[in-house]
Structures are given as C-alpha cells and as structure tokens.
From TrEMBL:
Coiled-coil ranges from the UniProt annotation: none
PROSITE patterns referenced in this protein's UniProt entry, alphabetically: RHODANESE_3
Organism: Pengzhenrongella frigida
Name the record gives this protein: Rhodanese-like domain-containing protein
CDD domains, alphabetized: RHOD_1 (cd01522)
Alphabetized SUPFAM superfamilies for the sequence: Rhodanese/Cell cycle control phosphatase
Any matching Pfam family: Rhodanese
Domain Rhodanese: 19-139
Domain of life: Bacteria
Length: 140
C-alpha cells in the first residue's frame, strides 16, 4: 500500500461514499468495459461516478490526459476530497491511485476486487467485486 491512501473492500468503499458527500468514485476501466459490462451507480447518493480511462483500449497505453480529466470531473489538487478508484479487478486502480496521489489529489484509495473481481478457477469473473457485493450498478 505504498504511494496511496490504502485499499477498501467494495462495501467499505460504498460506506465511505455514503458517509462523505465530498467523496468521488472514479471508474478507470475502458469505454468498452463501461458500455458492455456496466458501471457502478451511485445515483442514490446524489452523484454520478466519474468515468476516466486509466489506459486506452486496445492499445493499453496510459491515458496521457488522465490527470486533467480528474480535474474535469470536479476534483482539485490539494482539496482533500477522498477519491476512490475502481477498475475490473483492482490492478489498474492501484496505478491510478498512485498517480493521483503523486499529483496531489486525494486521499486516493483503491477498491479491492474491482467491478468484476479476479478470474475464478473456471476462468470466469463476477464472483467477487462491486457487482458480486450487491452494490448498485447499471448497464447500458
């Protein structure tokens, strides 16, 4: 947990979002994942998740405008707002949390297990993570 505020389970992330109206959820998956897999729905908390790609698809290259897009999502360097990063399984979100922390955003947290979780023994996702925890989400 070096370089960012720490890791939260999906349930802990939801509790932080529900308990702190300044907290922001940033989904760093790709546009394809948002469209075809779904997105977390924090509308019941009176806000939307920010959708900011950490890496592009299919290139896998780090998004060169990631930090400016965080600012565009309403975050500001040094404002002290908790920022919770979510990806598919909790790997890209660690990198995003570290980059945000280094730039002065946050405290920045990684959401363990991500939206879909790791592969299970049958090479399927979905048995852990945001969706499996029963947290709100929607699909387009």
């Amino acid at each position: 947990m070096s370089g960012y505020a720490g890791d939260l389970t999906p349930a802990q992330a939801w509790d932080l979002l529900a308990g702190d109206e300044r907290a922001v959820l940033v989904d760093v998956r790709t546009e394809a994942e948002w469209r075809y897999v779904g997105v977390p729905d924090v509308g019941t908390l009176g806000r939307a998740a920010a959708l900011v790609e950490w890496v592009g698809y299919p290139s896998g290259a780090v998004n060169p405008t990631f930090l400016p897009q965080l600012t565009g999502a309403g975050l500001a360097v040094g404002d002290g707002r908790p920022v919770l990063f979510l990806c598919r399984s909790g790997v890209r979100s660690v990198a995003a949390a570290k980059a945000a922390t280094a730039a002065g955003f946050g405290p920045a947290y990684n959401i363990l297990e991500g939206f879909e979780g790791d592969l299970d023994p049958a090479a399927h996702r979905g048995r852990s993570g945001w969706r499996a925890a029963g947290l709100p989400w929607r699909q387009s």
